[in-house]
Amino acid sequence: MAEIHHFDHGWVTPAFSYLLSVLGSLLGLIGAVRLRSAHTGAEKGWWLVLSTLAIGATGIWTMHFVAMLGFEVVGSQVRYDVGLTAASVLIAIVAVGAGLAIALLGNGARNLRILVGGVLAGLGVAAMHYTGMAAMRLDGEIHYAGSRVTLSIVIAVVAATVALWLTLVVRKPAVIFISALVMGIAVNGMHFTGMSAMSVTEEQHFGAIKGASAGSLLVPIGVTVVFAILGMVYALMAAPSEEDRAASEFLKARIDARMAQQARQAAQQASSRGTLGNGNWTYRDRGQQ
Is 144 exposed, middle or buried (0-12, 13-18, 19+ CB in 10 A)? Predict the structure, then answer.
């Protein structure tokens, strides 16, 4: 068996991958709060897309990619099939999006929606992980321990179900932040449990291994993720929150009430002047009597 290192760069990659998973979860949970308070279908669709990208692309897939930067098989180059790697991104986004749509926008009992969405999203996350692993090219044959693979899938389903439940209940900033920390632990736990199921039997290959190195993918993926995060943060900051909407509606109601009161007063004054001017007598007539 080949020697495998999961932390080739020390704690840099797992720490950074955890931060990314927390950041993605945080943005996704905030987006879910905005989705629950949205009034139109277009607004709900927008926040669903943003939450999906935040959790699925940033919190899960990018975390997976960064963690893999610390992966090494001693004595072998590690390359990645670009097509399968791209497919793993799409799987993560579609699975998380479907789970969020079922839980947040679906009909039926809430707990049933959470369960169905959690199972679907969790299986999708597991499929993303092992699709990404299938994209790996190296000097050897990859094997998996069935019990740990099963455990990683169970963790993915449970984590996704809890995450969907959180998207439906959290509202306060402190609770959202704590929930993001917990989601980050769950996502990383699933990833490294799945990685621990892996072993490699060395095989001698002649010629260069086809595929892209993790380093060559780092720049385009890193730039994309940075701009995506900045865009999501801007969208969240620019959009009015539920408190902003409530304050705006309260102010509008006060203005409408004031204008209505002024209109009534003006109507009463006009009515009084009309009565005095069109009656059978006036103040002048009264003085002459």
Answer: middle
